[in-house]
Write a structure and sequence with these properties.
By secondary structure, the protein is α/β, with parallel strands linked by helices. The protein has helices at about 5-10, 20-25, 35-50, 55-75, 95-100, 115-125, 140-150, 155-160, 170, 175-180, 190-195, 200-220, 250-260, 320-345; strands at about 85, 110-115, 130-135, 160-165, 185, 225, 235, 240-245, 265-275, 300-305. Strands 1-5-4-6-3-9-10-2 form an 8-stranded mixed β-sheet, with helices on both faces. Helix 2 packs antiparallel against helix 3 (about 35-50) and helix 3 (about 35-50) packs antiparallel against helix 4.
Length: about 350
C-alpha cells in the first residue's frame, strides 16, 4: 500500500464532500464511471443503514480508506496466488474489513450456536489436526463476519480460517481490499468454469494445483478450512424465501479425499450461516464483474453443528459409488438446511 498516496487521497476527501470528490476522482480517471456509480450508491446505502449507530466522520473515514485502497490497487495491481495468506502488515487489511463490516452487525441480537463444537474444533487445532467446515454461503464477506460474531475468545481460531474462494472475490476491484485480509485458497468455481470453453482446461489444471496445495497444508496440520460445496451464494426463490443452495457432491468428495490423503487427521463439521441481509447477493447470478453493493444492519446467526461421520450416514450402504456420494452430499446439505430453519426462527 502506498501510504503517502493514501494520505493525499484522505486529505482530498473530507466527510462533507465525499461524493463530490468521488466525482472529481472519476473526472481525473482515478476511478471509472462504473465504479463511481457503484461506490456512490454503496456509500449512500451504508450511511442510511448505520448513521444512527456510527458517526458520519467514522463512516467517511472507512470509505476514504476504501477508495484509497481501490486507487492504489488500480495503480499497483495485487496478484493473488493459489494460496493467499491474509495481509496484516504494513497495512492490516483484515482489521480494515472487520472495522468496515462491524457497524452492520446487530451484535446484541445476533447469536453464535454450537459453542461446544467450536471448543472441540479448537482442541483439534491445538493438537495440530485439521478441520474442514462444510457450509452454506450467503454474503461475499462471510469470512470476515465469522470472527466478528465469534468474538475475542475464538478470534485466534476464526480469524485464521482459510476460505476456499472463487475468482470473483479476487478479481472484482471492490472485493479485493476485503479479500486481501482473508486467507484464501483461490479456485475457479464450477458455476463459472464453463463460461469460456477455451480456458476451461487451464482453469481445471489451476484447481488441481490448488487441491494439491491444500493437501500439503492439511499435512502440516492445525488448519481450519471453510468451503461452500454449493459453489456460490444462497439466493431467494420466486416466493422470496432464502434457499440453501444444493451441495455439489463432486466438490464435497474432492475435499473429503484431500482430507483423507493428508498426513494429519482431518475432521469435518457442518457450518450454518445466516448472514444474507448484511450484504445480499444480486437477485440473479451476475456474470460480469462489478455488482452493486447493498448493505443492511441486522442480526446474524452462525451455528457449528456436531462433527460428521463421513463414512456412516443415511443410505451409506448404497452399493453404487456415485449414488453413495450423492447421498452423503444430500445428508450434509440437509443438516445445514434444517439448522438454518431452526436458528432463523429464533
Amino acid at each position: 500500500m502506498n501510504f503517502i498516496f493514501s494520505q493525499m487521497v484522505k486529505k482530498q476527501m473530507s466527510e462533507d464532500n465525499f461524493l463530490t470528490n468521488l466525482k472529481k476522482l472519476c473526472s481525473e480517471k482515478e476511478i471509472t464511471k462504473k465504479y463511481l456509480d457503484i461506490l456512490s450508491d454503496f456509500y449512500k446505502c451504508y450511511i442510511k443503514t448505520v448513521n444512527s449507530h456510527t458517526s458520519k466522520k467514522d463512516i467517511t473515514s472507512l470509505f476514504d480508506q476504501l477508495v484509497a485502497l481501490l486507487i492504489d490497487h488500480a495503480k499497483n495491481p495485487f496478484k493473488f496466488g493459489l494460496y493467499h495468506k491474509k495481509i496484516t502488515k504494513p497495512f492490516n487489511y483484515q482489521k480494515f474489513g472487520i472495522d468496515f463490516l462491524k457497524p452492520l452487525v446487530d451484535l446484541k441480537n445476533s447469536k453464535l450456536y454450537g459453542i461446544d463444537n467450536l471448543k472441540k474444533i479448537k482442541e483439534y487445532i491445538d493438537k495440530k489436526e485439521n478441520v474442514i467446515l462444510l457450509s452454506n454461503h450467503q454474503s461475499e464477506v462471510d469470512p470476515l463476519i465469522i470472527p466478528i460474531l465469534a468474538g475475542d475468545k475464538y478470534s485466534s481460531l476464526t480469524s485464521n480460517i482459510i476460505s476456499v474462494a472463487g475468482e470473483r472475490v479476487i478479481l472484482d476491484p471492490l472485493a479485493i481490499p476485503f479479500s486481501m485480509g482473508c486467507s484464501l485458497l483461490c479456485i475457479y468455481s464450477k458455476r463459472y468454469i464453463d463460461l469460456d470453453i477455451t480456458k476451461k482446461h487451464q482453469k481445471q489444471m489451476h484447481n488441481k494445483k490448488v487441491m494439491s496445495l491444500m493437501k500439503t497444508l492439511l499435512s502440516e496440520g492445525g488448519k481450519v478450512i471453510y468451503v461452500a460445496p454449493s459453489g456460490g451464494r444462497d439466493r431467494r426463490n420466486n416466493r422470496g424465501k432464502i434457499e440453501i443452495a444444493p451441495f455439489d457432491y463432486k466438490s464435497l468428495e474432492m475435499f473429503y479425499l484431500m482430507g483423507k490423503k493428508a498426513k494429519r487427521k482431518t475432521h469435518f463439521f457442518p457450518l450454518t450461516l445466516s448472514t444474507y441481509d448484511i450484504m445480499p447477493p444480486p437477485e440473479k447470478i451476475q456474470i460480469e464483474m462489478g455488482e452493486k453493493r447493498v448493505v443492511n444492519r441486522g442480526k446474524i446467526f452462525i451455528s457449528f453443528s456436531n462433527e460428521l461421520d463421513m463414512e456412516n450416514f443415511p443410505q451409506s450402504d448404497e452399493k453404487d459409488k456415485v449414488q453413495r456420494r450423492k447421498n452423503r452430499a444430500k445428508y450434509i446439505h440437509n443438516i445445514v438446511k434444517e439448522e438454518y430453519e431452526l436458528i432463523t426462527k429464533g
